[in-house]
Amino acid sequence: MPILEFLDPDSVVPALRARTKKQVLQELSAQAVRRLTGLDEREVFETLLQRERLGSTGIGDGVAIPHGKLAGFDRLFGLVARLDKPVDFEALDGQPVDFAFLLLAPEGAGADHLKALAQVARVLREPGILERIRAARDASALYALLTHTPAPQAA
Protein backbone atom coordinates (compact mmCIF):
# COMPACT_ATOMS: atom_id res chain seq x y z
CA MET A 1 0.00 0.00 0.00
CA PRO A 2 1.40 3.42 -0.89
CA ILE A 3 2.66 5.55 1.96
CA LEU A 4 0.78 8.57 0.59
CA GLU A 5 -2.59 6.91 0.03
CA PHE A 6 -4.21 10.26 -0.84
CA LEU A 7 -2.02 10.56 -3.95
CA ASP A 8 -2.99 8.71 -7.11
CA PRO A 9 -1.03 8.22 -10.36
CA ASP A 10 -3.21 10.73 -12.25
CA SER A 11 -2.36 13.48 -9.75
CA VAL A 12 1.24 14.00 -10.81
CA VAL A 13 2.25 16.94 -13.01
CA PRO A 14 5.85 16.48 -14.19
CA ALA A 15 6.33 20.00 -15.65
CA LEU A 16 4.05 22.74 -14.32
CA ARG A 17 4.51 26.10 -16.02
CA ALA A 18 4.28 29.13 -13.78
CA ARG A 19 6.45 32.17 -13.19
CA THR A 20 5.11 33.48 -9.88
CA LYS A 21 3.85 32.06 -6.60
CA LYS A 22 0.32 33.20 -7.48
CA GLN A 23 0.49 31.43 -10.84
CA VAL A 24 1.69 28.24 -9.14
CA LEU A 25 -1.32 28.35 -6.82
CA GLN A 26 -3.66 29.07 -9.75
CA GLU A 27 -2.25 26.19 -11.80
CA LEU A 28 -2.39 23.78 -8.85
CA SER A 29 -6.03 24.78 -8.30
CA ALA A 30 -6.84 24.21 -11.98
CA GLN A 31 -5.07 20.84 -11.99
CA ALA A 32 -6.95 19.73 -8.85
CA VAL A 33 -10.33 20.72 -10.29
CA ARG A 34 -9.59 18.75 -13.48
CA ARG A 35 -9.12 15.63 -11.36
CA LEU A 36 -11.95 16.16 -8.88
CA THR A 37 -15.59 16.70 -9.68
CA GLY A 38 -17.70 19.22 -7.84
CA LEU A 39 -14.93 21.62 -6.84
CA ASP A 40 -14.89 25.27 -7.76
CA GLU A 41 -11.47 26.36 -9.04
CA ARG A 42 -11.84 29.86 -7.61
CA GLU A 43 -12.70 28.45 -4.16
CA VAL A 44 -9.66 26.17 -4.20
CA PHE A 45 -7.40 29.03 -5.29
CA GLU A 46 -8.80 31.43 -2.67
CA THR A 47 -8.34 28.76 0.04
CA LEU A 48 -4.70 28.29 -0.94
CA LEU A 49 -4.12 32.04 -1.19
CA GLN A 50 -5.62 32.64 2.26
CA ARG A 51 -3.33 29.98 3.73
CA GLU A 52 -0.29 31.59 2.06
CA ARG A 53 -1.20 34.92 3.65
CA LEU A 54 -0.64 33.30 7.06
CA GLY A 55 2.91 32.39 6.03
CA SER A 56 4.64 30.71 3.14
CA THR A 57 4.13 27.00 2.64
CA GLY A 58 7.61 26.93 1.09
CA ILE A 59 9.34 24.64 3.59
CA GLY A 60 12.84 24.90 2.15
CA ASP A 61 15.10 22.90 -0.18
CA GLY A 62 12.98 23.99 -3.17
CA VAL A 63 9.76 22.45 -1.78
CA ALA A 64 6.35 23.95 -1.08
CA ILE A 65 3.34 22.20 0.43
CA PRO A 66 0.36 24.46 -0.28
CA HIS A 67 -2.68 23.16 1.56
CA GLY A 68 -6.16 24.00 2.68
CA LYS A 69 -9.50 22.75 3.91
CA LEU A 70 -12.62 22.94 1.78
CA ALA A 71 -16.27 22.95 2.82
CA GLY A 72 -18.23 20.11 1.25
CA PHE A 73 -15.08 18.17 0.41
CA ASP A 74 -15.07 14.60 1.69
CA ARG A 75 -11.52 13.21 1.52
CA LEU A 76 -7.83 13.97 1.55
CA PHE A 77 -6.43 14.74 -1.90
CA GLY A 78 -2.85 15.16 -2.97
CA LEU A 79 -1.39 16.49 -6.21
CA VAL A 80 2.30 16.87 -6.93
CA ALA A 81 3.93 19.14 -9.46
CA ARG A 82 7.49 19.63 -10.49
CA LEU A 83 7.85 23.17 -11.79
CA ASP A 84 9.54 23.65 -15.14
CA LYS A 85 11.44 26.61 -13.64
CA PRO A 86 11.99 27.49 -9.97
CA VAL A 87 9.70 30.19 -8.55
CA ASP A 88 10.20 32.54 -5.60
CA PHE A 89 7.81 31.24 -2.95
CA GLU A 90 9.07 33.26 0.02
CA ALA A 91 10.30 29.95 1.45
CA LEU A 92 11.78 29.73 4.92
CA ASP A 93 15.30 29.29 3.53
CA GLY A 94 14.89 31.89 0.76
CA GLN A 95 15.41 29.27 -1.97
CA PRO A 96 13.09 29.21 -5.00
CA VAL A 97 10.60 26.34 -5.23
CA ASP A 98 10.74 23.75 -7.99
CA PHE A 99 8.51 21.08 -6.41
CA ALA A 100 5.04 21.53 -4.93
CA PHE A 101 2.80 19.08 -3.12
CA LEU A 102 -0.80 20.30 -2.95
CA LEU A 103 -2.89 18.87 -0.12
CA LEU A 104 -6.64 19.45 0.13
CA ALA A 105 -8.72 18.24 3.05
CA PRO A 106 -12.32 18.36 4.26
CA GLU A 107 -13.18 21.35 6.41
CA GLY A 108 -13.50 19.24 9.56
CA ALA A 109 -10.34 17.18 9.05
CA GLY A 110 -8.20 18.77 11.76
CA ALA A 111 -6.04 15.86 12.92
CA ASP A 112 -6.15 14.02 9.58
CA HIS A 113 -5.03 17.14 7.75
CA LEU A 114 -2.08 17.63 10.12
CA LYS A 115 -1.13 13.93 9.93
CA ALA A 116 -1.19 14.10 6.13
CA LEU A 117 1.02 17.21 6.12
CA ALA A 118 3.48 15.47 8.45
CA GLN A 119 3.43 12.37 6.25
CA VAL A 120 4.27 14.41 3.13
CA ALA A 121 7.06 16.25 4.97
CA ARG A 122 8.52 12.93 6.20
CA VAL A 123 8.60 11.47 2.70
CA LEU A 124 10.25 14.62 1.32
CA ARG A 125 12.91 14.58 4.07
CA GLU A 126 14.09 11.08 3.18
CA PRO A 127 17.77 11.17 2.23
CA GLY A 128 18.22 11.63 -1.52
CA ILE A 129 14.51 11.82 -2.35
CA LEU A 130 14.58 15.39 -3.66
CA GLU A 131 17.49 14.60 -5.98
CA ARG A 132 15.59 11.57 -7.31
CA ILE A 133 12.42 13.65 -7.74
CA ARG A 134 14.32 16.26 -9.72
CA ALA A 135 15.91 13.56 -11.88
CA ALA A 136 12.67 11.63 -12.55
CA ARG A 137 11.76 11.60 -16.22
CA ASP A 138 7.98 11.37 -16.09
CA ALA A 139 4.84 11.29 -13.96
CA SER A 140 4.95 7.54 -13.33
CA ALA A 141 8.53 7.74 -12.02
CA LEU A 142 7.58 10.65 -9.73
CA TYR A 143 4.57 8.73 -8.44
CA ALA A 144 6.68 5.65 -7.77
CA LEU A 145 9.22 7.69 -5.81
CA LEU A 146 6.59 9.36 -3.65
CA THR A 147 4.58 6.25 -2.92
CA HIS A 148 7.38 3.70 -2.74
CA THR A 149 5.75 1.58 -5.40
CA PRO A 150 7.60 0.13 -8.39
CA ALA A 151 7.52 2.28 -11.52
CA PRO A 152 5.70 0.64 -14.43
CA GLN A 153 8.03 -0.90 -16.98
CA ALA A 154 7.83 0.21 -20.61
CA ALA A 155 6.45 -2.48 -22.91
TrEMBL record:
Gene Ontology molecular function: protein kinase activator activity; protein-N(PI)-phosphohistidine-sugar phosphotransferase activity
GO biological process: phosphoenolpyruvate-dependent sugar phosphotransferase system
Protein name (Swiss-Prot/TrEMBL): Nitrogen regulatory protein
Gene Ontology cellular component list: cytoplasm
InterPro entries, per database record: PTrfase/Anion_transptr (IPR016152), PTS_EIIA_type-2_dom (IPR002178), PTS_Nitro_regul (IPR006320), PTS_SugarTrans_NitroReg (IPR051541)
Ranges of residues in domain PTS EIIA type-2: 5-149
Subcellular location: Cytoplasm
Primary enzyme class: transferase
Keywords from the named record: Transferase
EC nos: 2.7.1.-
Cited PANTHER family: NITROGEN REGULATORY PROTEIN, PTS SYSTEM FRUCTOSE-LIKE EIIA COMPONENT-RELATED
Keyword Transferase included in the entry's annotation: yes
